[in-house]
Amino acid sequence: MRPVVAITVGAVAGAGVTALLLQGPHLLGSGRGARAQRRARKRSTDTEASAHAVAAFGLPTTEHVRYFEKFAVAWDPRSRNPRWVLEKLEGWNSEEPYTPSGATRERSSFREDEAFEERFRARLDDYRGSGYDRGHMAPAMNHKSSQKDMDETFYLTNVSPQVGAFNREYWGRFEWFCRCLARDGQYEDVYILTGPLFIPKKSPGGKKWEMRYECIGDPPAMVHVPTHFFKAVLAVPRDARAPAGGRRPGGGRRRHPPLHVAAFVMPNQAIDPATPLAAYNVPLTSLETVAGMKIFEGAREVYDGRGRAAIDDAGLSWQQAGKQIARAARVAIEDPGVPAGRITDAGDGASSELASAASHPPPASAAEPGADAVRATDVGAGGTRGAEAGGLSKEALEVLWAPKTADGAGVVHLCDAVRCELPPRDFWVRPGRKDKRESGGGGA
């Protein structure tokens, strides 16, 4: 299967691309009739656009969607970054035999994507000597089913400039956490949406917001260096797939386990390895607002008013819990940078007071070390730390790690279902092999 490029003209197609890649009983538009309706809407929209008086000499092309064998990329020719990269990782049953494909990074090399004009694509020379890593959005390690699949992750279309100490450390461990979701047998499929963000900061005087970021390469065709990166994860629990017709063999509708969803945002900078992953949770609606796109629009539970509010509130609660663990361990955290203010109309008129206390806020006493204290960095702080830097009582930790999604929401926050902790810093080192990483992070 050859990679395909689809060009989005103006605002046509827009954010619905992710929805078209999701299929299953939980997701909107999974039937034959729904597919016909989508095709009809697209034909109607395309006809309307081409027939408009202003389109006599064509409409400007803006976003380019590139379909590879195992992932899809929306390419932004202005910033020369992927706007988003969407992967589907199929769950692996540990009872099934695993046959290595022989794919290896050593046989892959970064390459320019000639599907795009040279003036609109990222170039190898842009990164050479820039001081930034070529950071994968879809990690190479996620696509080892063949050498061809792995090679496709090395197109610069799948790459953004990342600070080396971020890419090779915290981000690489985060990638491994996401990969393991598809390996522990709990999930049938895991969808991962990854991309760069450009987030403003307050000016030195604190009165205005400023957007500041570096560019690499030579003008006018330069690659913009993102300030932050995000991942949104949607995991489909096993047995959530319905048989044909969506009914049990004996009749009656089949009940499906709720989807597990989470969103994370991290700054493009070195991060203390002991930082709890939970601290980088953000409300999904806030991420959508900052990124300017709808995420997992095809999952009706995620866009149901009650489900969206529950996921947003749980995301903020997990962020607060992570920050409390970090404070107890004296770990300084760079704020995710995504405001959690009042968000309205998240779906079906839903609204959520995200700036207020979250649904299940941890008590103020939770950060106080108790007589039966445990090292915070051993429980939930994202990894080990050289010196003991504070502690939390077991009771406090139980409160902080308690599920945070409201009952009956129809969807569950991912961190309620799995322990949102990163692997050890040296997770890629095998016995007898030193300084050999297998993460999909990048390297310059």
Brief descriptors of the model:
444 residues; alpha+beta; Extracellular Endonuclease, Chain A; two-stranded antiparallel ribbon; 10 helices
Describe this structure in words.
This protein is an alpha+beta fold and 444 residues long. It has one domain (4-246, 254-417): Extracellular Endonuclease, subunit A (Extracellular Endonuclease, Chain A, 3-Layer(aba) Sandwich), CATH 3.40.570.10. 23% of the residues lie in helices and 21% in strands. It has helices at residues 17-21, 32-51, 124-127, 147-152, 164-181, 284-291, 300-303, 305-328, 394-400, 414-417, and strands at 4-9, 61-67, 71-76, 81-90, 132-136, 159-163, 187-197, 201-202, 209-210, 215-218, 221-224, 228-237, 259-267, 343-344, 351-352, 373-375, 391-393, 411-413. The chain has an eight-stranded mixed beta sheet, sandwiched between helices. Strands 5-6 form a two-stranded antiparallel sheet. A hairpin with a 6-residue loop joins strand 14 and strand 15 (351-352). The longest helix is centred in the C-terminal third of the chain and has 24 residues, at 305-328. The radius of gyration is 22 Å and the shape is globular.
